[in-house]
Structure formats: structure tokens, C-alpha cells
User: Fold Protein purity of essence from Culex pipiens.
Amino acid sequence: KIKRNGSKMAAHSGGVDWAKILPLLSNSSENVSKSDTQNLVKTIIQSENEILDHDAAHKQFFDSFVVLAAEYLTNQVTTLSQTQLPQFSEAATVLIRYILQQHQDVQAPNKPSILLMALKVLCEGRKESGENGTGTGSGSSIISASSMKYLKYPEAHGKSSCGGSSSSGVGVSSGGSGSEKDSPKSEMKRSRSDLSTVILQQLTTPLGAGAFTFATLSEEQIDCTDMFVKSNIQCLQATNGGDTLYKWCCNSLATLAKYRAKYEECTIQGKPLYLPITTTEASAVKANLPQIESDISNLLLAVSLPVVDLCPSKIALLSQCAMSALYCGVLTSTAVSVLMMAASGSQKSASSSQLQQKEQQQPGNTPSQKEADDEDDLARIVVDRALEIFTKIGSILKSSTRTHIYQNHVCMGAWLLISGIQGTMGASGNPGGGSVQTTASVKTSEESLKGRSPLKTLDVPQMASAAPTPALRVNLFKVQQGFGVLNAAIARHSITLLTELIDDLKIDSRTDDEEYSSIESAGFDILGQYSSIQRVVRVLNSATLQQLMTFLATVSYRKACTLRRINTKTTNEGEPMSYSDSTTYYNDTFSCSEGSEPEEEDSDSYLGLWFKETLSPEANEEMTESQEQEKKEEKRHGSNLVPAKDEPHEYLNLSSLIFNFFDVSLGGQHIYLNRYVRTGLSEQQMVLLANILRDLDRDSARGEPENSGCLQWQNAMVKFSGSVGRYLHNLISNSLLNESLQSALLLHLGVSPWTQDSNIWPLQVYSRTLAVLVQILLLKPSQEKEAACLSVWHRLVNTLVEGVCSNPTIPNETEIEDLNVEHAQLLLFLFHSLNLMQKKSILLLTAGGVIRCSEVCRSVTPEKPLRDHQIMLLSRLLLFLEYLMKHLYNPPNVLLEQVR
Assistant:
């Protein structure tokens, strides 16, 4: 019966001429009279039943009306008297109830909800600028009033419901003329009536911490926004708005619900985590980006509302929303990366000039290019807002008195991000877009755990592949081709979350080794009671984390260098990249082809080619002029979680962040972390670290001017170099590298004293490599250290003597290596660490080398003179002999100062 009556009432307007309401909403706030404002407020209050229980045919009209009314009221409260505020708040309550009513079990729109935007305006005021792309800024309206002109609205008695009215009068049907309503006399009566209402409300309302308390009533026009917003928030919380909105987000956002179901298949049922690692799957995700972006935007609006009520049910709903959004961000970044790798095709290597030509061949104004740019922007927005939602919900959960809730949230997020990074890496080894699944599963069978180390027997996600398929290979060069700002943002956020988890672990009291022998990893229940070590175990063993992150740091570093090379105009732009494209790792370990290593050693470094040209002041001025445009581009994409475009220093900063994480967080003194680091290090990591270290040394040796490149790049390079050096130093000094890894590191640095060929030693060795060499040697037991130092001296003297005595055909003598001064100083420092008998043996060895060289000098004729490089190497040998004879017993202070 109530529904029938409601339908009849909704079919016709309850005395309201809605056609006269529309012109008011289209006017600006400055051009509206007080009487029009009061009429609109009273219309909303008196038409409450009609607004809340309207005919379905009029839904679009009332949606638009509520949105415009919400904006109108919020604008008007900036100049309002306290006597008028209660009516404004009552009208806002009607609007809030309508908005919540429309979000109960209703399918979400395929665009950001205008009703949620209106609710955000009511609960926040008009203080924010619309930088999130949600249209809630003070400089723009959510919708245009002109769009309501042709919407169907309820008929006033005796009037048609179609078309707009040309009348500019506004009001409820009251029989009075417009001139009477605007007269001073009627205005005075209305003011007194409003004042009576306020007095009655104050006398009958319980006192509390609400917006209304007994106060001196004033007709002075003031900014009542804060009181208005506070009242609206109380209304939203009193009507259980949070529960309504979060359920709507979980159930009505169809795309998020679909992907959340896939996520829960992994976390609850133990199935592999779905990631789009084939081009078909990636294309499907990319095709869904508009729907994902719409759902993500609606979710961001919902979680931005102040409806904090952290009961267990709402915490569970919030967690579902956070993980759904984060999973969509991971899917998007993975899909974009896979498609970028596929687009590169069978190309194995690319020079910077080729990349530049490719960019020049694709004009930015073509439709296809514009469409691609729009898709890139859409993907960037999805990842950016996904990370923003996860962070916002984390901030909400952090305010809970249940401290474990936030830590569980961080744990689940870190696990998902690491799994996504692992899937992206695995997709690079997926030839031809096959269906190899490189995703993580939560439950590991007992058979797969047999024979593994205790650290790897935890029920954590592992790199999995079906039995018939070949084992997974990851191609470093392909990963770099698909690595972009989205992957960098995901990686950066994962490091942030991992750091929080490990910091929480370090607060816990330390315990004995036995307690870490069998740790059950944390589950995926946001309300679960897990210890900090269980959370850390869940994430650290979700992948071969140290190898994965070292791999990621290397790719990010190379990406930075590639971009820097493209962006810097040098004469060497056409030269090929100096790294091998065959670097891969097999299952849980890397495998590098040995054939490419000599070419790597002789080739130019990644960085040296790009510091040849000092930027001119004119170039700096041009860069300064473009900063405003860059800032505008950044604002297009919301927060700063995802940069608007590729910047070399951003990738370099990511690499620095990873090595700092290794050093500070993983490199702590916690028993479990120390054991995890020791068991997780591998020779393949030493290969990558050695290549980076030698590269940095080569660039320093070239003596590039310190002011080369932009300031951001210089600062990023200083941070990167320092983080790598500190990480390696602490790895060695904390005895985290076993003898095998120490030998491997020196071998790939080219300064191993234990190789079989005892007649070869590099002459040009620079400071970072020398620091690693001397640190490893000095930490050896006394006998091993002395034997290694003697071996180094034997190899060096033999190399110098061979260089003097042999006379190979050398087209360009400038290519011959000379002994650099840092190298010579360090060798002398090692010499003084030996005992007297060993020093004498080195002195005799050097003297014997000089005698051998003298035979060559005797055979010199005018027709066959000594070549320049022979004279140079002989002079180095003689300098060593002179020094050893003068300072056999004690080193001079000047040497120690230079070494220091």
C-alpha cells in the first residue's frame, strides 16, 4: 500500500514546480538572492518523500538535481548566518540519504559516480582543487545544469513534464507573486520564522559534541563551511554510510569484483595467482582498462569519504577494496610490460640512434599515436590510483587500536606486489606468447618441499611451472624493453612496504636460532593474529627475493642509462649498448653466457658515453622554461606515485632504493635476516654487481667533468654509486659472503689472485674495485691473506715483464694499458702488510724482473728500438724497485694518506 501511494505521489509533483528550480541551479553563487536560496532549501526539505521515493523514470533527473543541489548548498554556506545553517544541514541530510539509497545493491555506472562526487563535496567542502580528475575541484562543476533541460521530471499539477521552463521564478507552489516574496516585509517575516525554528531546535536537541550547541545567535554572514561539513559527516556516519558504500564497492563494481575473485582463488583456494603473462591475456586486460579505471575512480571517491568506523566487518570490507585495487594495478603494469616486450619482437639489441629514429618515424599527431598515448595515460592513472587507494586505506587502518591490522595490510600488499614483479620478470622468458604460468601459488605440496633448505620449506609462493613445460628462463634484455614507469612505481611501493615490515620485525625482541627453524608464514586474513616474523616470512619467501631485486635494480639502472644516452646529444650515440642481451637466469638462479663477457669488458660503459658534453647555459635555460609544462603534465595524472613520463634519474633512484633496502633493512643484525641473506646470495648476483662496479669505475676513470649532465642526474648518480659501494662493503665486512662468492666477485671484477693463469694481472684497476679487493684480502686469515698478496705481486711483475719483453704488433699504442696510480698505491699498501721475509721475496722478484727486461734493452738497435709502451711499463717496474729498496721496512706517511 505504501509503495502504491508512493508511486502515485511520484508520478505527480507534490506541489513543486521543478521547472522553476532549474534556472536557480544554473546561476552562479554571486547572482542568487537570499530568498531564492531559502526557497531551494525549503523545496528540498518539503519534497523529501518525493526525492527519496520517486518514479524510476525520473531517476536521472533526481540524480542530477541532487548533485547540483549539493554543489549549490556547499557554495552558499561560505556566506551564511548561524540562524540559516540548521535548514541547510537538514536539506543536506536529505541529499545524503538519497545518495546512500542509490548505492544499495545497484550496478555501478561505467564512469565515476556523480553522486559520490556530490557526497564528497558535502563532506569536504569546496577546498580541494580537482587534481584527481574526479571533477570535485572548486574551479569546476561536477555536471552542467544545462544537461537537465531535457530530462524528464515529475509534473506539477496541471503542467507537462517535458521541456524546460522559460520562467525565472523559483519556489514551491504558494500562490504568492514573485514581487511579494522578494519584498522586505516578507523577508523579515521569513527571518523571524527561521530564528524561531533555530531556537526550538536548540531547546529540543540534546547537548553534545555535535555541530549545534547553545551559542549567541547572530545574523552576521560568516563562513559556516566547517560546521556544515561536520554536520554532514555526522549524518553520514549516523546512517551507516560507510557500510553501505563499502558493500557497494565490493559488490557493484563489476570489474573489481571479477579480479578480486581471481585474487581470492589464490589466497583462499591456493590456486596460482593469475597474471597476464601472454600477449592474449595482456591484451584482454588492456581492453578492460576503461572499466577498470572507472571502478578504481569510484572506489577512490568512496574511500576518500570520512566514514571511519573500524568494526571487524568494515575492516574486512576495506581490506577487500584495497587488495582489489592493488591487484588491478599489478595486472595493468604487468599487461603493459608484456605488450611492450611483445612489440619489440625478435629484436635482441638496439642502439640509442635506432630507438631515436623509431620515435622520429612516428609523429605524435597521428590518430594511432594519440590513441596509444591515451591508453598509456589510462594505464598510468589506474596504477597511480590503485597505489593511492591502498595507501589511503592503510592510513585508515593505521588509526585502529588493533595494531596488527595495519601490519597485515602491509604484508598482503607487499606479497602481491612482489608476486606481480616476479610474474613480469617471468613473462620475459615466455617464448612466442605461450601459456607458461610463472605465477605464485600460496600452498606448496609436501613433495616439492623435500630436500630444500629450512628457509625455503615455508608454505610461500614459489616460481611454479607445470611439469611438462620447460623450466622458466628470464631474459634481462626483454625485461628492460618492457620496463616502464608503471613497473618502477610498483617496485618502489613494494620496497616501501617491505621496509615497514622489517622495521616492525626489528622492534621485536631477538630470540634463539631454534625458534626460527620452522616458522609458519602469515595467512591472508586481515583480522588474523600473526607475529612480525610470520609476516616477514610470508613476503621474503614469496620469491627468490634477493636475486629478484638485484635483477630489478640492474634492469632499472640500465634503463636509466639507456634513456640518458638517448636524451643526451653526443657523438657516440650510434654505438651499441655495452651490455650483453643474453643475461638470463634459470629457475631460481641466473645464468649468463660466458662468450659475451670479454666484449663487455672491452666495450664502453653505460654511463661514460653520456658525460662527454657539458650542458651549456642556454640548454639549462631551455630546461628551466619547460619546467612549468612538465609540472602541468604531472598534474594530469594525479598523485606523484607514478611519474608522468620516463625520467632517467627516476630509474636510477629506484636502483639506489633497492641497494639501500638490501643494506639497511635486510642487512640488519636480526638472526633470521642474517641467515636469509647468507642463503639467498648467489654467484649470479656477484656477476651483476661486478658489472655495475666496473662500469662506475670506468666512468670515474674517464675524468668526466662534475657539472656534466643535469643536476638531477648528477645527484641520482652520486646516491646510486654510494648505495652500491656501501652495500658491497657491508656484505663483505659482515661476513655475509662465503669464500666461494668472494672468489666469484673478484673473478668477475677481473682481480682474482686465485686464477690458474699466474702471468696475467690487469694494470688499470680503479678505486671501487680496489676497495673490494683489499677488503676481501685483509679479512682473510693471516696465511691466506699473505699468500694472496704474494700471488698478486707475482702476477703484476710477470705482467709488466711480459709487456716489456714481448713485442706484439700493436696498431695503436694508446690502447695499451698503463698502471694507474691508485692501483700502484694499493699494491704498496698490501706489500707493507707482509712480514719481512715476504717483503724481501717481492723485492727479489721485482729485481729479477728488471734483470729480465735488461736483456731486451741490450738488444735494442737503431733499427729496432724500444716501443713507447715498453718504455712506459719498464719505467713502472723501475719505480717499484726504487720504492721497495727505499721503504722496505716501513711505509711513508704520504702513502698511507693517499691510500686513505
About this structure: The chain has four domains: 2-166+221-239, 253-349+369-471, 544-738, 750-899. The two ends are 93 Å apart (CA to CA). The chain has a mean pLDDT of 76. The first strand starts at residue 473 and ends at 475.
